[in-house]
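Limitations
The structure tokens in this dataset are predictions for the assembled complex, not deposited experimental models. Users should treat interface geometry with appropriate caution, especially where small molecules or nucleic acid strands are included. An illustrative entry is reproduced here so readers can see what is and is not provided.
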Amino acid sequence: MIYTVTLNPSIDYIVEVDQVKLGSLNRMKRDLKLPGGKGINVSRVLNQLNVQNKAIGFLGGFTGRYIEDWLHEEGIASDFVSVSDDTRINIKLKAGEETEINGMGPVIRANEAEALLQKLANLQAGDIVIMSGSIPPSLGENFYNRLIGVCKQHGAEFVIDTTGQALQQALPLGPLLVKPNHHELAELFGVQISSKEDLITYGRKLLELGAKHVLVSMAGEGALFISENSLFRANAPAGKVKNSVGAGDSMIAGFVGTLSLTGDVLQAFRAGVASGSATAFSDDLADRELIEQLKPLIEISQL
Ligand SMILES: Nc1ncnc2c1ncn2[C@@H]1O[C@H](COP(=O)(O)OP(=O)(O)OP(=O)(O)O)[C@@H](O)[C@H]1O
Ligand SMILES: O=P(O)(O)OC[C@@]1(O)O[C@H](CO)[C@@H](O)[C@@H]1O
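Predicted assembly:
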């Protein structure tokens, strides 16, 4: 079974305006409310790929109910801990370019945090736990480590998609996959990355630090796949970009979902890139049909 963990879900409020005039009344051209948070996005794309999974994390208030109902309607199994504060609303402002304003998230109390750890009490060897996104400040930077501890205790694999200290601490614990984008990779090592060679060097460092597989995503430029004996590059197919929010989460879903079904890293890489691009070319997240259409357009070369 694959579990996704979203400690800080959101309603993504996508707002389109022609131009933002600060200090004036602006009227929206179009708006859209979607369930969000990185793990929830992974679950929704896994579901498109017919990969059974369960979404867990914290949800609260009217915003939490909106997300839970949406997942239920899509037939995605979920088992969130109910918290007393409202789940956040993240603003994705489209005015030519995309600007994001993400909330901090609700306060999570100690008993609510314990309840989430309990949700993983029945993990088994062979399960994969995908942990994605920011940690609400009240939980503390170490909370992913506690979840990873539970995974290891039960022999389950884990994938972690976060940044900074939380990612650094997780690497020596052996994640199945990490997927920084090129900016996050540079930030993680406190360096400037100016060439493909730099991306490979720092991507390989993630392996040395403990990751089993590394994807370095490069938006419209595609991605690199690095693991112990492999180094591959994939292009991203051409298309009209509608929304890049969740492209990285879709890539993780495509990769991990396909790896769990086939055990083949190259098929997984292709599905990951196709899923990321299919989301970039859609208003909402990728659907199965577009992912399948894009797969043959992806060229993978060995470096
Ligand atoms: N403009 C684009 N054109 C085609 N494919 C894209 C584009 N942007 C993203 N993708 C696809 O999605 C993958 C992941 O994108 P990206 O590198 O932007 O991840 P990310 O920064 O984690 O995304 P986000 O934080 O927006 O979810 C890319 O490797 C590519 O396959
Ligand atoms: O604030 P975080 O947890 O880092 O990121 C949250 C978020 O920006 O990530 C998803 C896209 O990847 C969105 O659905 C959501 O709004």
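Some entries come with short summary sentences. For this one: The chain has a mean pLDDT of 95.
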